[in-house]
Structures are given as C-alpha cells and as structure tokens.
Amino acid sequence: MGQDKKTLTPELRAFIAEWKPKPGNLIMVLHRIQQTYGYMPREIILELADLLETPLAKIYGVITFYNFFKLKQPGRNLIQVCLGTACYLKGGDDIMKALEQELGVGVNTVTPDGEFSTEAVRCLGCCGLAPVIVINGEVFGKVTKAALPGILDKFRRK
Amino acid sequence: MSEKLTRERLDALRAQLTAANAKEAKDGKQYLLVCGGTACDSNGGMALYAALRKAAEYAGANVSIVRTGCMGFCERGPIVKVLPSDTFYVDVKPEDAAAIVNEHIVGGQVVTRLLYDKSQAEAGHEGRDIDFYAKQHRIVLRHCGLIDPEKIEDYIAHDGYVGLEKALFEMTPEGIIQEILDSGLRGRGGAGFPTGKKWQFSAAVEADQKYIVCNADEGDPGAYMDRSTLEGDPHAILEAMMIAGRATGATKGFIYIRAEYPLAIKRLQIAIDQARELGLLGCDDILGSGFTFDIELRFGAGAFVCGEETALLASIEGKRGQPTPRPPFPAVKGLWGKPTVINNVETLANVAIIIQKGAKWFSSIGTATSKGTKVFALTGKVKNSGLIEVPMGITLREIIFDIGGGIPNGRKFKAAQTGGPSGGMIPPEYLDMPIDYESLAKIGSIMGSGGLIVMDDTDCIVDVAKFYLEFTVDESCGKCMPCRIGGRALLNTLTRISEGNGEPEDIQKMRDICDAMNRASLCGLGQTASNPVQAMLRYFMDEVMTHITERRCPAGKCKKLVRYRINPDRCVGCTLCARVCPVGAIVGKVREKHAIDQQKCVKCGQCYNTCKLHAIEIA
Lengths: 158, 619
Prior knowledge:
Helix content of chain B: 40-55%
Number of helices of chain B: 25
Radius of gyration of chain A: 18 Å
Structural class of chain A: alpha+beta
Strand order of the largest sheet of chain B: 10-9-13-11-12
Oligomer: heterodimer
Structural class of chain B: alpha/beta
Strand content of chain B: 5-15%
Distance between the termini of chain A: 19 Å
C-alpha cells in the first residue's frame, strides 16, 4: 500500500460535490481527506484544487497553517505523546525522549520499517491520567518509561 | 416520534417522562451511572459499561445502566455512581462489575473496597460527602454525570428546553437580553466580556442574516472543561444557541469544535439530529412559534490562535486562521460580513438555566462583579485532579487543598497557573484571595478558560515560563511583528537563562519585550503571551536570579544547571542508586556511603527519583 498512485475515492468525490456549494467548505473537505488517507497526498490535493476550483496555493496555505493536517504519511502505528501542561509537569517530555530512544528515530519521523511514528500533541484532555500517550487512538495513562517497551510490543507486527 | 413538536406536545412529553421516572423511583428502581468522559472511557470505562450490562442481565436485576458525561473525578476513574443511594465507587475495573451488581444492586450491600474513603462505609458513604464535591456548585455541569447525553428524552425530562420555551413564548428578544444583562453573566472564554452586551450589539444591527457561533476550540493545553460539557450535556449548548438566536435575530448557528475531540463531535451530531427530528431545530416553525434556527458543526484543525474571535471566523470561512484588527467587532461585522455573536461553550451552558430560573437566582451566586460559577480543570501536582465547578469568589486554597486534597508526595505548593499560556503563575501569598475576574487581573493572571495547573517545589518557574513560551511561539500565526518576533526573543532569553548563560541585563530586556508585546500585538494571543514571563519576573525574581548569578536551578529541573550529590548523613549504602544509574557514575560498596562521579554524570535524575531516603540532593 502507499506505492500505487492515489486518486479520489467515489465517496470523497460525492462528499466534495455535496460541500462545494457551501461557503467555508475547504477545511471540512480537508478533514475528510486526511481521515481517508491518514495524510494529505499531493495527487489528491491536485485533484481537489480542480474540483473545488480553488488555487493550489490557497489549499496548501491552509494545510500548512493548521497543526492537525499532515503532509507526510505517518507510520503504521501512530504514537501521540501528550505535551500539554499537566503531562509536561508530570514528565511527558521524558516519555518522549525515552520513546525516541526506544524507536531509534526522532519525533515526526517514521521508523525505517514503517511501523511507528511519533508526534507531540497538545493536551488530549485526560489530564487526570498524566502523562498520557495515545497509540492508534488507544489511550495509555500514567505511563512510565519502564512500561513503554511492553506497550510498544502490543502494536508490533507479530 | 417523527411528528414535529409543538409547545403543548413538548410539555406533555416532559410530563410523561418525569412521571415515568417518578414511578420507577417509587418502584425502587436503581440506577448505575457509569462515567463516559474521555478520561474514564480510555481507562477501561467502556469495557466496564459492557461488563455491568452483562452482569445486570445475568442477575436479572431491576437496574438501569446509564453512560453519562464526565463526573469530574478523573484522578480516580472509572467512576460508578449508584442512585438513589448516591454511592460513589472509584477506580472500578470491569472485573468489579459482578460485585457491584450482585452485592449492591441485588443484595443491598455496599461494596466497601470500591468506595473513595473506605472508612466512610460506616459513616454513610454518600457521594456528596466526598471532599472533592463538598465545595462544588454545579450549574454548568448540572447534567454531566446525571443524564445520558445521547438521549434527548433524558435532557427533556431534566428541564431540557424549558428555557427555550420561555424565551420563545413568554419573552421578547429585548427581554431575553435584559435578563442576561441582569444576571451578570460574563464570557467564560477568558476575557470576561458581559454576554448580554455582546448580544445587544448584534441585536442592534440591521442585517438580512445573522449568526451565532459557539467557540468550542478549546486550545489551552491542560484544560478540558468545554469538552466535558459538550460530551456530557450537548443539548444545553444547542438550546442556548437557539435562545441567543431568538434574542439577536440570528437564524443560523455554527459550533466550531476541535477535530481532536471525536467523542464530543459524535455526541453533538447525535444531539443535533435528535433535535431536528423532533422539530426543535432546523425547521421554520420551532414549537409552533414561527422562530427558525439551525446549527451546523465546523471542525478546527489545531490552531490555538483560532480561539481568538476573528481568527475563528476566518477558519470557519475555510481560510488560514489569522486574526483581523477590531473594530469592526464580529457582533457588527463577523462571519461573511454579517453580525455574529461568538460565545464560548461554558458561557452558553449557563444561558438556558438563567432564562429558566431568572437573573436574580443566578446573580445571587458569586461576587459583586463576577456572577455564577466557574469550571476549572484542576490538574498538575494535586492529589485529586479532575473537573470541578465552584462559585466565583472561592479561594485558591479551598480549590487546591479542600477540593484537590493538597499536594501529593508531601511536597510544598509553589504556584498555580490560571489561564494557561495567557495567564500568570500565582504565588502562595495569594492563596486566600477570592477568585474573580478583577482580582486575578490585578495580580497579573487572567481567569482564562479554566485551566488550573498546580505546581510544587520540584517545578522550576523558568522552565514553566519557557514551556508556555514554546507553546505560544509555536502557535503564533505570524501576522503581527510584536508577537512573532517578541515571543521568539523572549524564548531565546529564557533558554539562555535555563542553560546557565543568562546575564543580569536580560531582566530589563525581557521586561521591555513583554511591554511591547502586550501593547502592540494585534490579538489576544500576542497581548497575553508574555503574562507567564511577567508573573515570573514579578513573583519569582529570586529563582530567576539564582539561575543567572549562581548558575543554579533550585528545583533541579533545568538539566544543564543541575549537579546531583549524595548526602553522606543520609546514605545507608543500599546501592539502589548505583543500580539505576545508566552510565555507572555512582560508586560505592554495599552499606558504605556512595558518591557521584560528576565527570560521568549525565544528569538524568534517575538516582534522585529512586532514592527512598532522599539522600540524593540537588546542589
């Protein structure tokens, strides 16, 4: 997967057609694209520019402005480390460093085998569980450095 | 129930639901309320809910199991509450489901081991008796943890849409605005602008289209009040937006919500769909009053600056979220150039109940200038972290020590931060000051949206200020120079100080930059971004100067400045520290005093955290 050239799925085309007449549609459409592909593939954005009749520069202007939109494909497992204030005070940055060591790559980089990528996020709203990491949407609270290898193993391809 | 409701039919439905609830209560029906907030959910709450249902079915118990919104006591989640006995269970695991159903629901015996305070078992074990709740006053969170947020019937049965009825049939638009003005409700997003005034401005403008926008782009790291409100009581927001629409003449509403809040988005969409189906929303003749209103969701995409009104509007319009100068204010010229009222979630959550119970009731709570309650996300170095709602005028001491249970691990309170990156640290000498908009502003902080972060003596103020500056520098949209360059310059200076390269002149330099940012930035983000630094310079000068002149970090947080040493009087030679040291920098034999080789030490702090006798000190 990921190798073949991407084109818009019929569902996405229908979604874009539905939203096209509405003012302020761009961000909602981009959300849907990221939901489908996990990031913003360039081929898709080119198609989108045609469909919405919006300049490519404007679309990229919006994508790069917002933290939520990604231009690079994340790893098969996406690890989000919370660096909101509560998690930071309880050692979220140490967890991040330990993860980088464990995986051998820095933040926002995919491991060579494509299995994991790490990103820092600002507050997931489970401050009572600080420090928190999220892997593929699954929340792990009160994480310690010692627990990390065990947590990662759960997600490694067997 | 696809037929559109009229006022009479809504009243009849409410009466019918209330009667059914009363009958169930008379028949001795019990309720198991399971917290379905994000923290509890992700801590095994979902599995717990399923296990409880299974156990209840198996036992054939006469019990109704409800997944509610956040109950607030996140620290000890997942939470289960039993009604009507009001028993409060904490740290409940799915394995405990059978015990709760069989022993408590069927057998009538409280499961003592799951109580918050086991000794309360004899005393009466009521949820209300828990210190965490004793000083709280729940208005905004009135339905959170009580109703099923995915059922409109539950909301209607608990006085839902009563305020809307009153606003539509018994009050004029001017009357509604007057009521909100009289209540003294002020914006809960941070700045505290009177809500009624905002509505008045918009109502006064003639336009063919007006909008109501709910700001649910809760970006303050360490705050989740709005998310919990939306997850626990979505209909209250819809009802309030409709009332605001009726008051100002708007017919369309948008809820601008963070895409990072999937559960809140799901529950809001369910609420909107249910309200539409009943004809409470999205039709021309709501409840037969001739009023029309509809609400749509719009997603944010992770930009803190979009909490600023004008940036938020740009984002809804599908553009980069950059602010524009005010005036014109959005209430006059907002979304697509039309008058737009923007209210924060918590502000709106107060509206329906103010209309229902009246301005007088609301203004009886709080202080002279700040009415009502405030929801805080109490987090950081505090025993009971969680979501709390307290009357305005309460002191920080009551919040942190009575509700929060004090500082864990026997540490000392150092500072509390309100308002997140836009607020300031509050030092211990203001612990007894009543909290309201004015008093917080006076000491250089702000009410903010409700993040309340507690720090203890292991937290370094320079480090915390640096953390917030990193955040605001990252989130600055880059449009205006004072914020873009000033923030970066402040951060560089703080970084230098934290690495032992600070100079005494840096103090004045930082003061000048703070002043410039504060006065010349375009929007609230830049104007307030320097607040943490200003608070640091005002209250924690000693600590800053220690960093600069002695090149030392008293809290031991600034890694480059730390030197660990072993106090020979306390060391018993247990070898624990030597074993955890990753670089073998600690030498010493069993039962003999150990020592740290400073050449080898990488200052990771493992030994410091490991030693149970506190023999390792930060020099």
